[in-house]
User: Which sequence fits this backbone?
């Protein structure tokens, strides 16, 4: 049992500071041309489909919610009410490794249909990148194979204490919220416009 009075929770504090430092430098790494391309695809899309597995899927749902607030026709892949994808639609695949089997397989189907596929990933040398029309690279460590997190901890390597793909997921969440801010500016809408579409069934 940990006595709260006797611990400084050093790993917790250090992890927060490392993530904050990572996020602070993230904006300087983006290829702005690819972000503009993504914005144009979103603005022109008939429907937008967002997909991701696990925690990346939760990040995708958060982005889809904000797109809905902006008035876009948007769906989360895998939900029972999600319609068929058409050629005029945009599919956004979120995968830190770019090799998540379900996301890669669904991406291939999207391309077979003829829709636009956008990849948001940390791995530029991945399958999802190879098949996508538009790629946004998010800096962040992808998942370890095996016990990498514990091994780093035992060796005293505290450069990144976030387990699994956490740095990618947090970074992509911040990126998507920043995209919403950019879309708000482009579309000339207000926060009140977003609030008007927020669910009342809570």
Assistant:
């Amino acid at each position: 049992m940990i006595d709260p009075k006797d611990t400084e929770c050093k790993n917790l504090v250090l992890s927060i500071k490392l993530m904050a430092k990572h996020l602070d430098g993230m904006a300087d790494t983006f290829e702005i041309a690819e972000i503009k391309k993504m914005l144009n695809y979103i603005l022109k899309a008939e429907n937008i489909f967002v997909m991701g597995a696990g925690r990346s899927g939760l990040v995708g749902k958060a982005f889809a919610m904000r797109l809905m607030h902006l008035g876009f026709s948007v769906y989360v892949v895998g939900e029972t009410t999600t319609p068929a994808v058409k050629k005029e639609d945009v599919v956004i695949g979120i995968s830190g490794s770019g090799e998540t089997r379900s996301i890669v397989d669904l991406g291939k189907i999207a391309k077979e249909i003829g829709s636009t596929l956008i990849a948001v990933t940390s791995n530029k040398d991945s399958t999802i990148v190879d098949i996508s029309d538009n790629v946004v690279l998010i800096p962040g460590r992808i998942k370890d194979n095996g016990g990498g997190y514990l091994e780093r901890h035992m060796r005293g390597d505290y450069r990144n204490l976030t387990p699994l793909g956490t740095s990618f997921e947090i970074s992509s969440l911040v990126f998507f919220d920043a995209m919403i801010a950019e879309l708000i500016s482009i579309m000339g809408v207000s926060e009140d416009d977003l609030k008007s579409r927020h669910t009342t069934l809570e």
